[in-house]
Amino acid sequence: MAAGLLGIEGLGRDEIEAILTRAKDFQPMQDHAFKRLDVLRGRMIVNLFFEASTRTRTSFEIAAKRLGADAISITAAGSSVSKGESLVDTLNTLAAMRPNAIVMRHAASGAPHFLARHLPIPIINAGDGTHEHPTQALLDARTILDNLPTLEGLRVAIIGDIAHSRVARSNVHLLAKFGVDIVLCGPASLVPAELAQIAPGVRISYDMCEAIRDADVIMMLRVQLERQHETAFPAGEYFQFYGLRLEHLQLAKPNVLVMHPGPINRGREIASEVADSQRSVILNQVENGVAVRMAVLERILG
Ligand code: NCD
């Protein structure tokens, strides 16, 4: 971990618990009038985003600043990447400015791992292709634990485009380490059977009602059209079979939590009434993004 954070798969339960506990300490800061600590004063964090982001990039930047660090965000579109510079050259250029850590999002699975092998700077994975998005899984776990006493023994249904989702993969790794009963659900083209092998305690269902029955948590996922190269996606039909609607919530536990990493596509994978319902913790997830990323940055750089 001293080297950075590349994925959940390689983290131990104790490390995950330490981050989640520390994130809880940072939660009340959201409501303080003066939101700045000195823990990382003088440190410089570069956010390098080769893919679109609203929540992740902003919350890493806010987290760094709340800890007293300086944070700079660079997006591929506005950088020399758009002039044809290679990934290694861009990274060597940034490394020459001696940041203390690089937070990176890239469309290629494994891109941050590649850089971590080449640069003597901690790399934090903010999403690599279809592979992992570790801080998302951590903030999701923080959000579940803000509402339920323990992860052990919960039933979590993850529904949607599992095949292309780094959020699903990181969540499966994390939840499986804590003995969660995980159901992956979606159309067969987006939920290949081999995904059941990712971790123990994972099963697959192609029937949304079956997946949701008795669930403590429903995690909805966006269909990652940018990672699919097939012809026109049947959005209406998708919503009919795999869109979360109010009537589905009756099948789950009475206090079921509805989660979504965002950005949500209303009417495509989730009905507006559900996204805005009492059961939805979607904005709590966003809020926890800052606290969890503070805990991660402090652990790596503090
Ligand atoms: C996710 C991502 O980029 O992987 N968004 C996020 O970080 N909150 C999920 C998505 O884009 O659908």
Would you kindly provide a brief summary of this structure?
The protein is an alpha/beta fold. Helix content is 36%, strand content 16%.
Topology:
Blueprint: E1 4-5, H1 13-26, E2 44-49, H2 55-66, E3 70-75, H3 87-95, E4 101-106, H4 111-118, E5 123-128, H5 134-147, E6 155-159, H6 166-177, E7 181-185, E8 202-205, H7 208-212, E9 217-220, H8 235-242, H9 246-249, E10 257-259, H10 272-275, H11 282-301
Parallel strand pairs: 1-5, 2-3, 2-4, 4-5, 6-7, 6-9, 7-8, 9-10
Helix pairs in contact: 1-5, 1-11, 2-11, 5-6, 5-11
Can you characterise this structure?
- By secondary structure, the chain is α/β, with parallel strands linked by helices.
- It has 2 domains: 4-131 and 286-301, Rossmann fold; 134-281, Rossmann fold.
- Helices cover 36% and strands 16% of the residues.
- The strands form 2 sheets. It has a 5-stranded parallel β-sheet, with helices on both faces. It has a 5-stranded parallel β-sheet with strand order 8-7-6-9-10.
- Helix 4 (111-118) links the parallel strand 4 and strand 5 (123-128).
- Helix 1 packs across helix 5 (134-147), helix 1 crosses helix 11 and helix 2 packs across helix 11.
- The relative contact order is 0.17.
Jot down its keywords.
single chain, about 300 residues, alpha/beta, Rossmann fold, five-stranded parallel beta sheet, 11 helices, binds N-carbamoyl-L-aspartate
Low-confidence stretches: none
Largest sheet: 5 strands, parallel
Tell me the CATH superfamily of the largest domain. Answer: Aspartate/ornithine carbamoyltransferase
H-E order: EHEHEHEHEHEHEEHEHHEHH
CATH class division of the largest domain: Alpha Beta
CATH overall fold name of the largest domain? Rossmann fold
The helical percent reads 25-40%
Describe the global form.
Answer: globular
Q: Distance between the terminal alpha carbons, to the nearest Å? A: 12 Å
- Global Rg: 19 Å
At CATH level 2, the architecture of the largest domain is 3-Layer(aba) Sandwich
Give the helix/strand class. Answer: alpha/beta
Number of helices: 11
Order the strands across the largest sheet as they lie in space. 1-5-4-2-3
- The assembly state of the depicted protein chains is single chain
**Beta-strand residue percentage:** 15-25%
Q: Give the total of domains.
A: 2
